[in-house]
Write a structure and sequence with these properties.
Number of helices: 12
Helix content: 10-25%
Largest sheet: 14 strands, mixed
Structural class: alpha/beta
Radius of gyration: 23 Å
Strand content: 25-35%
Shape: elongated
Length: 446
Amino acid sequence: MGSSMDEKVVAVIMVGGPTKGTRFRPLSLNIPKPLFPIAGQPMVHHPISACKRIPNLAQIYLVGFYEEREFALYVSAISNELKVPVRYLREDKPHGSAGGLYHFRNLIMEDDPSHIFLLNCDVCCSFPLPEMLEAHRKYGGIGTLLVIKVSPESASQFGELVADPVTNELLHYTEKPETFVSDRINCGVYVFTPDIFTAIREVSSQTKDTATLRRVSSVEALQPATRNSTDFVRLDQDILSPLAGKKQLYTYETKDFWEQIKSPGMSLRCSELYLSQFRLTSPQVLASGDGTKSAIVIGDVFIHPSAKVHPTAKIGPNVSISANARVGPGVRLISCIILDDVEIMENAVVTNAIVGWKSSIGRWSRVQACSSLKSLTFKCFCLVSLNNHEPGSILCRSQAEGVYNSKLGVTILGDSVAVEDEVVVISSIVLPNKTLNVSVQDEIIL
């Protein structure tokens, strides 16, 4: 093999598909989750931009099972912008994180890369990819994982791992353990040599051999077909765990930020992290203003060039305003994402909220989250069905997964929601095409 100066590198970003991401509703109802804008750019744009910094990058692949047409325009635009070929590869069905990589192995290896980066689209971090590659070349082995230290209380939500403090070899890996193992977790960012395909093939072969030797139980027969198929291979349980402690995998620990983007509420937090990073890496994309010719801007704020913001508005910190939005006089925006074609009329206030495409917020209205979150453990939430201006029927139910965003203290307005004048919306989720003419709090508007 040639020197590292001659070696090519490719990157694969897993974007998932429409059968997942239900926690991201209602914002994913009319746009694929990977294309939802965070800090003014589609979610997938951030890992793609990070890949641009990898030396000798030959190609970026997006792997998922969305329809190709949903990514066609974006893939074309980002390829031209970054001057790096970006290609979308559609799975015929979910193959698992490792199985999806293996399924397209021939295409991925077309450029004969020495290393393959594998990233998850719904990860928010600084993506220290060149540093990982340099560390991996020193370590050797099949692959290197990006890891981070978290609180012991939150570690069990992720893949916990134990690494040698001197050599950084991965010694033990377990996915979401029931008992505490380690405060180091897997960040979902990897660099591998092509030997990873051999490891995946061996797992797939073992699964196939086992399947032929035993009869399928009645319980297994009821499971989704993809989970029982021999080409469904999970990277964490099927690859990382068996290879741990065999001098094949190593870790690279980041001291920077890291989050998962599993819900709309987390996207607002991640928008804040990326905007803060822009201050160091791309300060030119951040807005500024002192209230004379442009609005008063506080902290890290992104405003699309096509947006119209009145000079008497006060924006920030942590605000992202998308294309063709209109922000009227006296408006106050704090910690929010304003999507395309939104209109916010005079003296309205939006804080800790995401306002969906083509929505409108009336004069003197407020869209916000509770300033101090109440205990939601035993609280009932209302499911309110509104038919434009007609009163809705109210059904109460106990707390369930659907109120996840309310627990984060974020109000979500879906596509084309109209909040009329002097209406207050607090810690609620509103599905698309609704009109609110009465104030609501802690409700899901169906």
